[in-house]
Write a structure and sequence with these properties.
The complex is a heterodimer.
Chain A (H helix, E strand, L loop, with lengths): L2 E3 L4 E5 L4 E3 L2 E3 L6 E7 L6 E7 L7 E2 L2 E6 L4 E6 L8 E8 L6 E3 L3 E6 L1
Parallel strand pairs in A: 2-12
Antiparallel strand pairs in A: 1-4, 3-9, 5-6, 5-10, 7-8, 8-9, 10-11, 10-12
Chain B lengths: L3 E4 L2 E4 L5 E7 L6 E7 L5 E8 L5 E2 L8 E7 L2 E6 L8 E8 L8 E2 L3 E5 L1
Parallel strand pairs in B: 2-11
Antiparallel strand pairs in B: 1-3, 3-8, 4-5, 4-9, 5-6, 7-8, 9-10, 9-11
């Protein structure tokens, strides 16, 4: 069965430092997509970054990068130069082939300290 | 691009009434829309998938007669919570994807429903 695991319920990081949020996945499909979303306290889900299973290079979007290690089935999110506004819940998700449905991890709450 | 709106953002209703939530893709045609439910401090739970012009596909355990979904156009899907009860109180959030967006879903801002 397909599954997404986020083992860090909460993380702290000092402002301006980098932080890595862990995500591992399990699937037998060769084709899948991996996503990270940010959910601030307002509740909206903000799309951050996408990695396709066939992509050779790690995805990057501004201060966000995805450390994709296919053999380990991990898709960790790296946020560089953390800002106070990065404090939020972060969800890792995987798309299911052929349906476009997502399965989500349980999330990691990130708190950036001044 | 890829903006999704949701209305209302917050609703309080009495037990037994029905509540309609609208989800609109503002700048793209949404081939598929998804409805999720999120309880406090939990992850998102997919309720149903809707494609324009066809019946919604509900996830296991979701009552289709309780949560009516209509995807009448490529930019609008509605979720109606019928005969709402306090246990239906939750955060409901929709997402949409278009063919040009491939797999990526863009989410609305969510609706907080409180049933008294």
């Amino acid at each position: 069965a397909q599954k997404i695991t986020q083992t860090q319920p909460g993380m702290f990081v000092q402002e301006k430092e980098a932080v890595t949020l862990d995500c591992t996945y399990d699937t037998s499909d060769p084709s899948y997509g991996l996503f990270w979303y940010k959910q601030p306290s307002s509740g909206e889900m903000i799309f951050l970054i996408y990695q396709g299973s066939y992509d050779q290079q790690n995805a990057t979007e501004g201060r966000y990068s995805l450390n994709f290690q296919k053999a380990r089935k991990s898709a960790n999110l790296v946020i560089s130069a953390s800002q106070l506004g990065d404090s939020a819940m972060y969800f890792c998700a995987m798309s299911l082939t052929g349906t476009y449905k997502y399965i989500f991890g349980t999330g990691t709450r990130l708190k950036v300290l001044a | 691009g890829a903006v999704v709106s949701q209305h209302p953002s917050r609703v309080i209703c009495k037990s037994g009434t029905s509540v309609k939530i609208e989800c609109r893709s503002l700048d793209f045609q949404a081939t598929t829309m998804f409805w999720y439910r999120q309880f406090p401090k939990q992850s998102l739970m997919l309720m149903a998938t809707s494609n324009e012009g066809s019946k919604a596909t509900y996830e296991q355990g979701v009552e289709k007669d309780k949560f009516l979904i209509n995807h009448a156009s490529l930019t609008l899907s509605t979720l109606t919570v019928t005969s709402a009860h306090p246990e239906d109180s939750s955060f409901y959030i929709c997402s949409a994807r278009g063919d040009w967006l491939q797999e990526t879903q863009y989410f609305g801002p969510g609706t907080r429903l409180l049933v008294l």
